[in-house]
Amino acid sequence: MATIQFNSSRWIGIALINFFIVALAGVILRYKINFPLPLINQKNLLHGHSHFAFVGWVTLALMALMVNHLLRSGLVTNYRKYHWLLIANTATAYGMLFAFILQGYALFSITFSTLSIFVSYFFIYHYWKDLNKIKEEKHIGIWFKTALILWAVSSIGVFGLAYLMANRTVVQELYFAAIYFFLHFQYNGWFIFSCFGLLFSFLREKNKLHFIKINKCLFLTLAITVIPNYLLSIFGLKIPGYLFWIGTISATIQLAALFYSYKLLQAISTSADIAIKKMTTLLWSLAYMSFALKITLQALSIIPYFGNFAFALRPVIIGYLHLCFLGVISFFILGYLHELLSRKGIKLNKSGLLIFIFGVILQEVVLMVQALDVMMSQTSANTPIVLFIAAIAMASGLAMLIKTRRLKSI
């Protein structure tokens, strides 16, 4: 009965379609940088692109996979509520996409953004209650509960930004502080913690004691540092000296996550009773490398020389955000989906995955080169075209993925 009330595969399919739409919007954005396209407002499309990416792709995929965790745990509950919550989430995502494209930050886009936050609150409430019914998996549930808390916390940034806009506050630092607050607790909170929750959910039957030990160390490292690490996001603003040192200590402690996450990846790859697919290994290895690079870049930002470039150069900011969104989160989710589906006799299109991976790596390399050029006061005329090609590659790869004929129940 539960599987009839909630079809994980259908929602995963919708999330992948949404991911393709995100990539398609990225292609248009890159096209407009290189060629004239007067019908499209670049800034409005950029807002629609980013909001839809957060809510329509990553959040929808994570919600569906987290509900799937309940199903695989054998929990008996009313799954129909999740079906309607995901419908509401998808509706707000498309509402934001079209509203931002048509009018930018205005009544309808702000309304749909607010509604998406209230949908998240309802999901958090119901999922928390259902998690409490699974008593024997506390080492997994703690990841999900922390993710839910940080998801709720991230909305403070949105409401703070709305307050500043309503009062027409002219202090630019406050706007950036609110935006970075939202981004930090989404990327490093809700996204990261839910992904690790899903990973340990996948590993729950495998060499349990060994993985639980790594689980505890990794969780403590990330949980202790996630709040003070927000300060790293605002080092470019004027903050008191003691906050700088709190952020510096936190970034240093977070480096331990590199060690524990590497031990985790190594344990997965060498465990005979797990035997994950080669494509999953590739995607999760890339996700780990992206995660390691993200943490390293955060640590480097405490050094004033690197910090000045990190907060002043647009290619660095865009590259970092895409590294987190595509390299860490999207690679992990796609690997997780590939592994779950392959165990049901169906695989995501290999060529599509490889083309998508190529596009992501090409984009990150070019953005890095672009940032280095700016640092050395040089310019390269070809980078916008290459970034356009990378966007086409990502969209093409995802188009091949969504052609997967039939997603069986997972």
From TrEMBL:
Protein name: Uncharacterized protein
Source organism, top-level taxon: Bacteria
UniProt signal peptide: none
Source species of the chain: Pedobacter nyackensis
Annotated transmembrane regions: 12-31, 51-71, 83-102, 108-128, 140-166, 178-202, 214-236, 242-262, 282-305, 317-341, 353-372, 384-402
Record key words, sorted: Membrane, Transmembrane, Transmembrane helix
